[in-house]
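re: ur msg from earlier - yeah i can do the zinc ion complex, just paste it... oh wait u already did. ok heres what im feeding in:
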Amino acid sequence: MAETAQKLVEELNHPQNNEVNETVDIPTTADVTADGKNVKQIKCQRCPSTILVPGIATLVTHEFLLPDPEMTGKKDKTLDDSLNKYWCVDNMYAFENVGFSKTVDGVKYLICADCEIGPIGWHDLNTKLSYVSVCKISYC
Ligand SMILES: [Zn+2]
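and the outut:
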C-alpha cells in the first residue's frame, strides 16, 4: 500500500518521465515534418559542424549494429530502441561535413569531417542510402 502511494507520488512529480532517456536525444513528432523529414539542422555532437540541413533526411527504423566502442557493456532497452532510429538520406552528396570510410563489407562508415568522431552512421553501397544514427548527432 505504501509502495503504491510512493509510486503515485513519483509519477505525479515526474510525468511521462519513464520514457525519456536524458543521454539520448530521440526525435519526437515535433522534430519531423508532415512528410517525415528533419525539421531541425542535424549537427555533430562534438563540434559545431553541420551534418545535414533541415528537410533532407527521413526518420527511419532500421536494424543495423553500428560499431561503437562507447556502447560496449551498456545494454539498455531504451537505448536499443533508439539505436534503431536513423536519419536516412538517399543522396550522399546531401551531407555538409561528413567523411566516408573505406568500404567494409559493402558499407562505408560516416564520420564528422571536422572532428572525425564516428562512426555516426553508414552508407550502403547497394541501396545508395545513407543512415545517420539519432544517438550520434545533436540538433539546432
Ligand atoms: Zn564533429
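cool cool. Residues 44, 46-47, 49, 112, 114-115, 117 surround zinc ion (CB under 6 Å). ping me if u need the other ligands too
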